[in-house]
């Protein structure tokens, strides 16, 4: 009796390319999570409201929205490697724009720098995710992407650590009320303190820009594998778009991805505000819990990737979404440290959501995955729209009879409900594809 072995997740001809492209996942993970705590930092430095400071996330994730479709068209016209190089170039330029932004001491130039930086990240994610999916058999594509995505949190943890130790810990400790008094009584002294704090923020982004520039050079000279790319072939954008819109699994994936990213950014961005409002923690101490959340996220991702050998992607997504919703309710209603740990624990449930939704939505799309990937990257715009809504609730002393910081986490609960529905429908694969 013959024995047919299961296909390799990463075939040998693609191994070098897979390793090199996987490093990009850490690069954008770093950018995401060195930036989340900056919402609280800019609020104190420039005396902004929570709603105003949350525009950091709107600018950051706005770049994904604006550039996702152009990035997909560019990649479809050229190659995945070309898209990666364009992404790294814009990423480096955005980081370097922090230098003039710091000198101007205005909030808007920082928002522009974040926007340009994430236009680059949009190119990177639109290129790297489908490229990883294409590096081997279709039946192992979701597992391959989950494995690559497992290295994203390594960059995220590094970004969180840099934010905690090299930014938040080095900012002037003068509280907001005292800064407002200083602004009225000694505006020159206030300007000097603000300039010093902004210089602290600029430093890590400048270093990041240099690292990304080096990565650009490495990718420019590296020989990456071709995976059936059409290169300069004809582009049937209208036909591709129509096929995607007829695919219920893809449509649902875009919606689920938007709500997932919104939930992730809300749970990680506002953990500092939650810990400060409910437990009186400093920003540095609260950021420590954010790092713990990311460590849990990393550990859970490897565990859940292993579970995919035995559980369907849709079934696992459904279970994780239910768990995330329950823990978000715990953050709303449970007192003290129990509520904070509930918020931290949500990361275990979020760990595999992005790549699983991504893999389910693009499954079987073939070359249409290049444009389809853009829709899923555009869905990252959920991180552009939802944090300001949560910030508006946090700015209220009470909301629905609860402290604003607690009540704001009803928004992630709604997000997890949407994700759970998609996970459930994904278990009914034929219905989801044909609907």
Secondary-structure blueprint:
Layout lengths: L14 H21 L2 H8 L4 H4 L1 H23 L2 H17 L1 H7 L2 H27 L7 H9 L2 H16 L8 H10 L1 H35 L15 H10 L1 H22 L1 H9 L3 H25 L5 H21 L2 H15 L2 H10 L6 H10 L3 H13 L3 E2 L2 E2 H4 L2 H17 L2 H6 L1
Antiparallel strand pairs: 1-2
Helix pairs in contact: 1-7, 1-9, 4-5, 4-7, 4-19, 4-20, 5-7, 5-11, 6-7, 6-11, 7-19, 8-18, 9-11, 9-15, 10-11, 13-18, 13-19, 13-20, 13-22, 14-15, 14-17, 15-17, 16-17, 16-18, 16-22
3D architecture notes:
The structure is a single chain. Residues 430-435 have low confidence and may be disordered. With 435 residues, the protein is mostly helical. The chain has one domain (12-224, 237-434): Growth Hormone, Chain: A. The protein is 78% helix and 1% strand. Helix 15 packs parallel to helix 17 and helix 16 (313-333) runs antiparallel to helix 17 (336-350). The chain has helices at residues 15-35, 38-45, 50-53, 55-77, 80-96, 98-104, 107-133, 141-149, 152-167, 176-185, 187-221, 237-246, 248-269, 271-279, 283-307, 313-333, 336-350, 353-362, 369-378, 382-394, 404-407, 410-426, 429-434, and strands spanning 398-399, 402-403.
């Amino acid at each position: 009796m013959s024995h047919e072995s299961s296909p390799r997740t990463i075939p040998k001809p693609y191994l070098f390319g897979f390793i090199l492209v996987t490093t990009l996942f850490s690069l954008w993970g770093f950018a995401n999570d060195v930036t989340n705590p900056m919402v609280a930092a800019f609020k104190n430095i420039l005396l902004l409201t929570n709603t105003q400071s949350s525009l950091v996330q709107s600018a950051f994730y706005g770049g994904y929205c604006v550039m996702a479709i152009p990035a997909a068209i560019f990649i479809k016209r050229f190659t995945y490697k070309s898209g990666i190089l364009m992404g790294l170039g814009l990423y480096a330029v955005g980081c370097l724009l922090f230098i003039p932004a710091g000198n101007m001491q205005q909030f808007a130039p920082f928002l522009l720098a974040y926007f340009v930086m994430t236009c680059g990240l949009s190119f990177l994610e639109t290129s790297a995710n489908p490229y990883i999916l294409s590096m081997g058999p279709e039946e192992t594509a979701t597992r391959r992407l989950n494995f690559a995505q497992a290295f994203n949190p390594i960059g995220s943890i590094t970004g969180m650590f840099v934010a905690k130790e090299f930014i938040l810990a080095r900012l002037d400790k003068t509280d907001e009320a005292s800064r407002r008094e200083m602004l009225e009584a000694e505006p020159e002294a206030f300007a000097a303190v603000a300039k010093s704090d902004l210089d602290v923020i600029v430093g890590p982004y400048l270093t990041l820009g240099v690292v990304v520039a080096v990565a650009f050079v490495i990718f420019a000279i590296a020989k990456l594998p071709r995976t059936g790319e059409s290169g300069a072939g004809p582009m049937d954008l209208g036909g591709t778009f129509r096929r995607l819109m007829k695919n219920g699994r893809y449509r649902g994936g875009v919606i689920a991805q938007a709500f997932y990213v919104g939930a992730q950014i809300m749970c990680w961005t506002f953990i500092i505000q939650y810990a400060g409002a409910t437990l009186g923690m400093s920003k540095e101490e609260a950021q420590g819990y954010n790092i713990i959340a990311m460590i849990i996220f990393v550990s859970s991702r490897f565990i859940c990737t292993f579970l995919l050998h035995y559980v369907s992607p849709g079934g696992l997504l459904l279970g994780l979404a239910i768990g995330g919703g329950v823990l978000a309710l715990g953050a709303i209603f449970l007192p003290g440290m129990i509520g904070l740990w509930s918020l931290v624990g949500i990361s275990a449930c979020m760990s595999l959501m992005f790549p699983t939704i991504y893999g389910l939505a693009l499954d079987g799309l073939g070359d249409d995955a290049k444009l389809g990937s853009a829709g899923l990257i555009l869905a990252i715009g959920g991180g552009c729209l939802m944090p300001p809504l949560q910030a508006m609730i946090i700015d209220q002393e009470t909301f629905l009879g609860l402290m604003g910081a607690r009540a704001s986490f009803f928004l992630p609960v709604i997000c997890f409900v949407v994700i759970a529905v998609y996970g459930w429908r994904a278990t009914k694969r034929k219905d989801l594809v044909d609907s």
